[in-house]
Amino acid sequence: xxxxxxxxxxxxxxxxxxxxxxxxxxxxxxxxxxxxxxxxxxxxxxxxxxxxxxxxxxxxxxxxxxxxxxxxxxxxxxxxxxxxxxxxxxxxxxxxxxxxxxxxxxxxxxxxxxxxxxxxxxxxxxxxxxxxxxxxxxxxxxxxxxxxxxxxxxxxxxxxx
Length: 161
Description:
Layout: E1 7-18, E2 43-47, H1 55-62, E3 67-77, E4 84-93, E5 98-108, H2 125-160
Antiparallel strand pairs: 1-2, 1-3, 3-4, 4-5
């Protein structure tokens, strides 16, 4: 969300963080209502302005080992009309970070004073195509970089053994 080619992240409005229950058994189903001695908060939603700058979010990620599983932000065009795009990205299965999807939720046009409108309109087909292309390009790049890190880590384990 921070490095989309041609866009500047303006504000993060919603962040969902996730931390799977440690030692959760595969056959464990829905919570059965019993008190658990070791409480665990699995999902946290933070909503507002400047969410990624909050100490609470940074503590959850850096200290408590939560990770972002869903996020909504406003990105503005570097060139063009300068419209703001309300984008949401998420993993459908946050436990193993699979099922990545995204949605262009709407567009904020510029008012006469140069500020983004408070009213969000539906995106046009062209806007959806343009933003989708940029998000998919960045997602592919990030997956490639993750695979390179995994390969490097695996090579280090072999050398260390």
